[in-house]
Specification:
The protein contains no helices and six strands. It is mainly beta. It has one domain. The strands form two sheets. A four-stranded antiparallel sheet has the order 1-2-3-6, with no helix packed on it. A two-stranded antiparallel sheet has the order 4-5. The relative contact order is 0.22.
């Protein structure tokens, strides 16, 4: 069994305080392998565990300032089943 995680923390000081200057994201994955030679792998991935991802944009020109926020994918789960068909490294029996 294997597990992995990643954590990102970003501070955007150019944004006004009400737009969420601080953004953090935590992703995690667990994986389990099965069958002889571990050819079958089952993994579960969770992206944006805190569910606080936002798209933030600030545009400043000589005549106006534009602040935009929007929602993105947010938290999502991915379940993956993978089989390795690799036959190149297996020994062949010669007749």
């Amino acid at each position: 069994m294997a597990a992995a995680a990643s954590y990102n923390y970003m501070i955007n000081s150019q944004l006004p305080p009400d737009m969420g200057r601080r953004m953090q994201r935590l992703n995690a994955r667990v994986e389990r392998r099965f069958l002889p030679k571990e050819k079958l792998a089952l993994s579960l991935t969770v992206n944006d565990i805190f569910n606080n991802r936002q798209d933030v944009m600030r545009r400043v020109t000589s005549s106006y300032v534009e602040n935009r926020t929007g929602n993105s994918a947010g938290r999502f789960f991915l379940l993956k089943l993978q089989y390795n068909f690799d036959m190149l490294h297996e020994k062949r029996s010669d007749f």
